Amino acid sequence: MSTGQVFISYTRQDAAAADFVASLLSSAGLTPWLDRRDLTVGERWVSAVSEAIDDADVALILVGSEPSRTFMAEAETILSRPAGRPRPVPVLLPHAEALPSFLSGRTAVDLRGLRLQSAEAVADLLQAVVERNPEARPTPDEDLRTALARASRVLGEDHPDTITAASNFAASLQESGDYENARAVFADVLERSRRIFGEAHPNTVTAAANLASALQALGRYDEAQWQLRQVVDLAARTLGPDHPNLGVLHSNLANLLFDTGHYEEAENHYRIAVLIGENALGPDDPAVAVRRSNLGNVLRSTGRLQEARDQFEIALRVSENALGPDHPDVAWGHGNLGNVLRDTGDLAGAREQYERAIQIGERVLGPDHPDLAIWRNEMGNVLHDLADLAGARAQYEIALRITDEALGPDHPETGAVRNNLSSVLWEMGDLTAARAQLERAIDSAGRDPVTNHPDLAIWHNNLGNVLAASGDKATANEHFARARELGGDNEPSQTDD
């Protein structure tokens, strides 16, 4: 058995399970790394976690309660590493609903229906860490393509483990940006799953959901929506109308519909997801709180601010009761409530909520966590509204430092913060600095793989405003024209993202 390091990723509501897994691995001669135990006081969260992931041989991704943004960001960091360094091992805890979409196509240790402390669960966990079935699994120096070929040769094309290997290969292609080939492999997996398992089988449901994820990554949103609708319908027939996994699928479809502006349909699916969650998990379950927050975001986007506020307040109360006041999901609850209070003009109330989100986030995540950048950016917006330009600038600059370090200079969030900082610099009279921030935001959007960046029109418009104020009318008109091409407005309107 290896004595290498095992990184443990988990949501905060599953902290007890993470502690048990860490103790189990230690007793087996392994070296687990758990942030709540191994993070040194004062140590920078991003750098400490990144270093621990780099040092790990295996990364256990514990899936239990509804995935938080923090958990998903940590998992994405693990999955972005080169194949095999560390080897990601998703683990479905006994209370998990289903494998989340960002882990789709990966083989998971499924402990649902077991007690975590049972002999069977313990054996499955330990075997997953040291890798069982060596004849069908890759050695450390083999890539997933070779693993798929070996599984096909040893087990046969239509063996379930070969299909799983094909899904893993497709997931790897998708993670590396080879979206078209990932789609092709996922489509083949779906066809084989239908043939081998039948249409009404959970494996077929998973395969169809994976294909939808690949279509979404390609920007083929209409096809992805159609596929997810088929998955939801299939799951309703296969699992039953009140199955917890069906609630997850409704949430996934609602997320896609919300992201593509189909708010009415998104609202309908979020409401179904909330109802299924309340029936299957209970109204005070943290997963239901997350779905209520998502429903609140739809209501906010459609201008129903009081209804949105009601959903956010219920979600925040449930999260605080279930998770305690010092939890990332509670911080997000305060942030969501701050957003809708700002929309209704209650700037003092919004400021208070953002302050609480920042305070909680700094305590439980560390001051340089990406979530802190979001709340500091929103705090900057409120201070800007209150005409506290110096305070807003300070918040934007902190947010920019965090996003630049944690997400990279080309990330959309980094560009959004640059735009907001530029607006304050412009109002403070520093047109040169404002221009520099906007030019960097636009340049970063050009390097981002999302070619239809949603804020690019705004940034071109704002740069046009700055250039016009600086007297460079000709270049300003070029940016106004570009904003119109992208669907923006050429009227001067420096705006916050």
From TrEMBL:
<keyword id="KW-0802">TPR repeat</keyword>
<dbReference type="Pfam" id="PF13374">
    <property type="entry name" value="TPR_10"/>
</dbReference>
<dbReference type="InterPro" id="IPR000157">
    <property type="entry name" value="TIR_dom"/>
</dbReference>
<protein>
    <recommendedName>
        <fullName>TIR domain-containing protein</fullName>
    </recommendedName>
</protein>
<feature type="repeat" description="TPR">
    <location>
        <begin position="289"/>
        <end position="322"/>
    </location>
</feature>
<dbReference type="InterPro" id="IPR011990">
    <property type="entry name" value="TPR-like_helical_dom_sf"/>
</dbReference>
<dbReference type="InterPro" id="IPR035897">
    <property type="entry name" value="Toll_tir_struct_dom_sf"/>
</dbReference>
<dbReference type="InterPro" id="IPR053137">
    <property type="entry name" value="NLR-like"/>
</dbReference>
<feature type="domain" description="TIR">
    <location>
        <begin position="2"/>
        <end position="129"/>
    </location>
</feature>
<dbReference type="GO" id="GO:0007165">
    <property type="term" value="P:signal transduction"/>
</dbReference>
<dbReference type="Pfam" id="PF13424">
    <property type="entry name" value="TPR_12"/>
</dbReference>
<dbReference type="InterPro" id="IPR019734">
    <property type="entry name" value="TPR_rpt"/>
</dbReference>
<dbReference type="Pfam" id="PF13676">
    <property type="entry name" value="TIR_2"/>
</dbReference>
